[in-house]
Specification:
The protein is α/β, with parallel strands linked by helices. The chain is built from 16 helices and twelve strands. The longest helix has 26 residues. Pfam families: COesterase.
Length: 403
């Protein structure tokens, strides 16, 4: 059976965003979708707050325990549970793999476009963003953010901030958190997350379960489709400065590798940098780390004409699958299921069967494990192919982003 953890960057989204009936009926899988506390409600941390910075993860574990205790009553198998998620949901699955408190609550894991490693997505998009916008924060970083929010809401004494915040109306707390510009994400180093998922993977301190994990080909394009990048496209000067900040001592090599050619825009080039740095290369390291202990199956979703239901992608960023583009191939999106061609529908059927097969027995059909063959399975409407890990690394300039 499947427990689905929704995405949304740990600050938005809901389990009800996904209609799982087609997947459940077609693949004979019992599906549970769940909600968890988001934003400051899920991940605010201040000194003295028991469970601070981890409430969202605790909610997910409560859902997994409920499934364990009740699955048999509605036709599920509590001894064969897959926890899966995309984007922020994928990050959540990373956290549950690394959490000792989640041990035994699931038996397979699916991570779609997650960031298990310690490369900050926000730092990759906006060099210089710093640790306050990282996905995984030690208390020394997380608690000052909470103290600052508390102070902005009139709770100016850190010693009494916890009790004071409990008296702040929820809408006011939400508004204050939004205005703060902070990214409230899991606190590491205590409680249910003694270390970051990246550290846990490197040290072999993760749940010993099969893992199906992957990315889409142009993850970064979605994040350059709105806001400042759309309103004020990058110039060559700005692009060069950002690449220099991102690549450090390998800046000259990175500029040569990513400077656009053939009429491509600097926004498009920066999208490639973000994709490679925050997802392709970071996840290749995760594939390698996971496979040291766990049966690991890696994929890249690469349907070049895949529609994106999450945002309108500007013309200069189209031509490759973007963050979230695989979702309508697997599930029905309640807020707007895009139309797929016959070839895309066939790819979707194949993916659903593959995902369900993995949920049943821990293997995605004929895909090789990363242990047996260091390769990534590439998914397109033309079929599946295997890309050698070294070739994948070269295509995404992973030597530049090895630090």
């Amino acid at each position: 059976m499947l427990v689905w953890v929704h995405g949304g960057g740990l600050r938005s989204g809901a389990g009800s965003d996904y209609d799982m009936r087609r997947f459940a009926a077609e693949q004979d899988v019992v599906v549970v979708t769940t909600n968890y506390r988001l934003g400051a409600f899920g991940f605010l941390d201040v000194p003295g707050l028991d469970g601070g910075g981890q409430f969202g993860l605790l909610d997910q574990q409560a859902a997994l325990r409920w499934v364990r205790d009740n699955a048999a009553a509605f036709g599920g198998d509590p001894g064969n549970v897959t926890v899966a998620g995309e984007s922020g949901g994928g990050d959540s699955v990373c956290a549950q793999l690394a959490s000792p408190e989640a041990a035994g609550l699931f038996h397979r894991a699916v991570i779609q476009s997650g960031t298990c490693g310690d490369t900050s997505v926000v730092e990759a998009i906006l060099p210089g963003a710093g640790p306050v916008l990282a996905a995984w924060k030690p208390a020394a970083v997380a608690e000052p953010l909470g103290v600052a929010l508390a102070g902005s809401l009139g709770c100016t004494d850190p010693a009494t901030a916890v009790d004071c915040l409990r008296g702040v109306p929820a809408p006011q707390l939400r508004e204050g958190a939004d205005k703060s510009g902070a990214y409230y994400s899991p606190t590491i180093g205590r409680g249910v997350l003694p270390e970051s998922p990246g550290q846990a993977i490197a040290g072999g301190a993760i749940a010993r379960v099969p893992v199906l994990t992957g990315i889409v080909e142009a993850e970064g394009a979605l994040f350059l489709s709105s806001g400042g990048f759309a309103e004020k496209p990058l110039t060559e000067e700005t692009f060069t400065g950002m690449v220099t900040a991102a690549a450090g001592p390998r800046a000259a090599e990175a500029i040569a590798a990513y400077t656009p050619k053939g009429g491509a825009t600097f926004n498009n080039a920066w999208s490639r940098v973000v994709t490679d740095r925050a997802w392709s290369c970071a996840n290749l390291r995760v594939f390698q780390g996971l496979s040291a202990e766990n049966p690991t199956y890696a994929y890249e979703f690469a349907d070049a004409s895949a529609p994106n239901a999450l945002a309108v992608i500007p013309e200069d960023l189209r031509g490759k699958a973007t963050h979230g583009a695989e979702l309508p191939y697997l599930f029905t999106l309640v807020r707007g299921q895009p139309a797929l061609t016959a070839e895309q529908e066939e790819l979707g059927r194949s993916m659903r069967a593959t995902w369900a097969g993995f949920m049943r027995d821990g293997t995605p059909g004929p895909w090789p494990s990363f242990q047996d063959k260091a390769a990534i399975t590439r998914l397109t409407t033309g079929g599946t192919t295997q890309v050698d890990a070294d070739d994948f690394a070269a295509a995404h300039h992973c030597d530049i982003w090895a630090r």
